[in-house]
Automatic annotation (TrEMBL):
The organism's place on the tree of life at top rank: Bacteria
Organism field: Antiquaquibacter oligotrophicus
Protein name stated in the entry: Excisionase family DNA binding protein
One Pfam family named in its UniProt record: HTH_17
Record region (Disordered): 72-92
InterPro entries: HTH_17, SinI_DNA-bd
Domain Helix-turn-helix: 12-59
Length: 92
């Protein structure tokens, strides 16, 4: 293990995770309590988030965003095709 790996902890605080995500600490705690962001309690009251878990959470958000975008594009295409079809039928 090199020096950088040794000084980089496996876990981060809720404040650090909130800073990385650019959200408030309150929202980070809400995500943890809802189970959307996995965390563990250490020492009774201190929450910690594993770095890998946070990275997976971010990756999942990217994937969700990508899928939503593709879905919205397909819905828009379907709607425009439907309205074109309806307009053609009215003119007949």
């Amino acid at each position: 293990m090199n020096t950088v790996e040794a000084t980089r902890s496996r876990f981060i605080t809720v404040s650090e995770a909130a800073r990385i995500l650019r959200i408030s600490r309150a929202l980070a705690y809400t995500l943890i309590r809802s189970g959307e962001l996995r965390a563990i309690k250490v020492g009774g009251a201190r929450w910690r988030i594993e770095r890998e878990v946070l990275e997976r959470y971010i990756d999942d958000l990217y994937e969700e965003s990508r899928r939503r975008s593709l879905w919205e594009q397909s819905e828009v295409a379907s709607l425009s095709e439907t309205s074109s079809f309806q307009n053609r039928n009215r003119s007949d």
